[in-house]
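Design job #97: recover the sequence.
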């Protein structure tokens, strides 16, 4: 009679330290997360963890004290907007961005404001000397008596400073520069980043210490290090901006305490970084003259409507191969709009150089800016300007139809607040509510309707 085998089956022999993927043989690259050098031998399955007795049973959710998770404002309005109200004691925030975008300047400003608000702040820098950070703090006016600064790259020493000072807020710039002598690997490697992050998170939760860690990004814009890092922290923020523009945008990719659809706008100057509560003025040209090829649109970034001006130039090509150039917009959307103008409207743009750009270096990725892009290109093609008091928004389809976009009333309210009096919007199936009386809007169903309305004498 056959008997069941009592021997314990072996687990797959190798496991990825970044994502946990397992395999029966060693490979140099994880097939799940595509990280190199993270697959290591794990041996046999260990015995299962046994339950232990607890002194106090888990309380009912209504009895949990939530006062420890209340927001404390940073007094940086745009940062508080993105975080949902401010910093939460014990929260761990990861701030990622490209080199030179202004991460250190922003956090130094946040550190000084937190210190002025009767908080003890420890700033650990592993990329610069203490003297360099102090010079920047003097330049942007970020000196405070309770702001402590140390230049340290050893994790144990940094945790020693935490033990000695017991700060309310800890800022680490950056998590890739710290290393622990307890684990192998160079600073910034997968193993080191995981150990550094786990130690800092453990200290933050134990002390109710708000911790902000700066994270580097790779060439494709993703956060360097193991993917586990983003899962461990409470908030992940992305700080973006063009190198040749002063505008910086802060977005929350993950937020356990607040929304992930808010956007913070900052102005980076030689004297520091300043929040922009009303950034629309940066994206609209100051000229009052009507120029062909320009059109103002309203894009929604998170919950915030932003007015931006789109400029287009269509010129006859003399070399035989038409050029296409796009700045601040999606190049594939521009190609699609040019094809719609050619096929549905009858504008011969195939032998014309086409240039499309936004004012102020803002990036517009929302499909709602399609109609304004088409109007700007048609205006340049016909050499006829549109009114400077007009805003246009709507998504354009391949059939030439104008599709509805969300938050129409919010966009119109923002346009009316900034002095615009007319608008062209997609047609809706129901009456719009909340539209201000100071703006006159017209609804259209196709791109041809919009162009006929704007250029009545043109052959469109």
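Job complete. Output follows.
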């Amino acid at each position: 009679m056959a008997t069941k085998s009592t021997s314990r089956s072996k687990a797959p022999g190798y496991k990825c330290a970044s994502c946990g993927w397992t395999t029966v043989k060693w490979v140099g690259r994880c097939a799940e997360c595509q990280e190199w050098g993270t697959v290591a031998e794990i041996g046999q399955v260990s015995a299962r963890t046994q339950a232990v007795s607890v002194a106090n049973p888990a309380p009912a959710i209504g009895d949990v004290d939530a006062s420890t998770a209340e927001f404390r404002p940073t007094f940086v309005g745009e940062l508080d907007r993105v975080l949902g109200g401010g910093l939460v004691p014990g929260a761990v925030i990861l701030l990622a961005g490209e080199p030179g975008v202004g991460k250190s300047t922003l956090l130094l400003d946040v550190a000084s404001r937190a210190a002025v608000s009767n908080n003890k702040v420890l700033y650990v820098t592993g990329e610069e000397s203490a003297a360099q950070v102090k010079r920047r703090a003097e330049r942007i006016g970020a000196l405070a008596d309770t702001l402590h600064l140390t230049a340290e790259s050893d994790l144990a020493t940094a945790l020693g400073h935490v033990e000695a000072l017991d700060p309310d807020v800890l800022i680490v710039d950056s998590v890739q520069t710290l290393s622990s002598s307890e684990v192998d690997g160079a600073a910034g490697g997968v193993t080191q980043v995981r150990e550094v992050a786990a130690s800092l998170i453990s200290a933050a939760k134990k002390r109710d210490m708000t911790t902000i860690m700066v994270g580097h990004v790779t060439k494709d814009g993703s956060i360097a290090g193991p993917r586990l890092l983003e899962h461990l922290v409470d908030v992940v923020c992305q700080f973006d901006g063009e190198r040749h523009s002063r505008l910086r945008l802060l977005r929350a990719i993950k937020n356990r305490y607040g929304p992930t659809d808010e956007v913070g706008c900052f102005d980076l100057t030689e004297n520091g970084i300043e929040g922009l509560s009303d950034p629309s003025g940066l994206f609209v040209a100051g000229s009052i003259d009507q120029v062909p090829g320009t059109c103002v649109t309203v894009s929604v970034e998170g919950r915030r409507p932003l007015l931006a001006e789109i400029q287009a130039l269509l010129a006859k090509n003399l070399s035989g191969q038409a050029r296409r150039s796009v700045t601040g917009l999606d190049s594939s959307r521009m190609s699609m709009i040019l094809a719609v103008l050619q096929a549905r409207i009858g504008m011969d743009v195939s032998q014309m150089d086409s240039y499309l750009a936004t004012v102020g270096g803002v990036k517009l990725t929302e499909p709602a800016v399609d109609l304004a892009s088409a109007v700007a290109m048609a205006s340049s093609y016909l050499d006829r300007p549109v009114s400077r008091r007009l805003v246009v928004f709507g998504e354009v389809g391949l059939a030439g139809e104008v599709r509805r976009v969300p938050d129409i009333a919010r966009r119109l309210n923002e346009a009316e607040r900034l002095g615009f009096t007319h608008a062209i919007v997609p047609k809706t199936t129901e009456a719009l509510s909340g539209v201000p009386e100071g703006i006159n809007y017209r609804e259209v169903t196709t791109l041809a309707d919009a162009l006929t309305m704007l250029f009545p004498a043109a052959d469109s």
